[in-house]
Amino acid sequence: MNIKLVALRLLTCLCWTTGVLPSVSVAQLPGTRVPGGCDVPVTARSSEVGCYLTATETLGTLPPDDLFWHLYEYPTSSAAHSAKPQSFGTVVESLGKVWLYAIAAEEWRPGSGQRVAVIGPLRVKPAAQYTARYMEAVFPPGMQTSVHTHSGPEAWYLLSGVQCLQTPDTESITRAGQGAVVPVGPPMVLTGMGTEMRRSVVLVLHDTSQPWMTIAADWKPAAACSLQPRK
Hints:
Shape: globular
CATH superfamily: Jelly Rolls
Strand content: 35-45%
Helix content: under 10%
Radius of gyration: 18 Å
CATH class: Mainly Beta
Number of helices: 2
Structural class: mainly beta
Order of helices and strands: HEEEHEEEEEEEEEEEEE
Oligomer: single chain
Strand order of the largest sheet: 2-7-15-10-13
């Protein structure tokens, strides 16, 4: 097993057994990154903790109207595929559930399925070509991403735990059962908060001609994220 991955697991176990929740980031374990790196397919998952790729869908040019990420749950993969429209939508098995994901107008509904969330709006450029990149992420409390940007909006739905999103202009908390969106552009940091493991499904709706993610070095949060309102 990779020694660096072992170190990350040991640090995670230490925080649970001692009650100490350190801020775990890529920078604090030199040469390491979040397990999976959001590039490894979920079928090749090697750790409970990390970010893994569940699907990608090339969407092309999108309509100028506000779009939303629709998340529906199904008992089986075949039931999800039966409900999926022929021209769009993605069926994903992630975090123990079968999902139908769709990027569509807010009022869109499939013919069946249990609606979990409708998250948006996802604002895009009218002339650009877009790809939907779907992931799942599991962070222990205190684990933090590198500062990064995306070439399109990013959205999350949390199944458990709490996350803090920090950008130069905002700091927002998202809890289990909630969704959130950050628009294209600003550098951002995500931190797992609270006492539970943060489990989320993730969408980055990115410009197909650009990288889906870019590490940013020109900004960092002035203060650690807090669950308490700032005065």
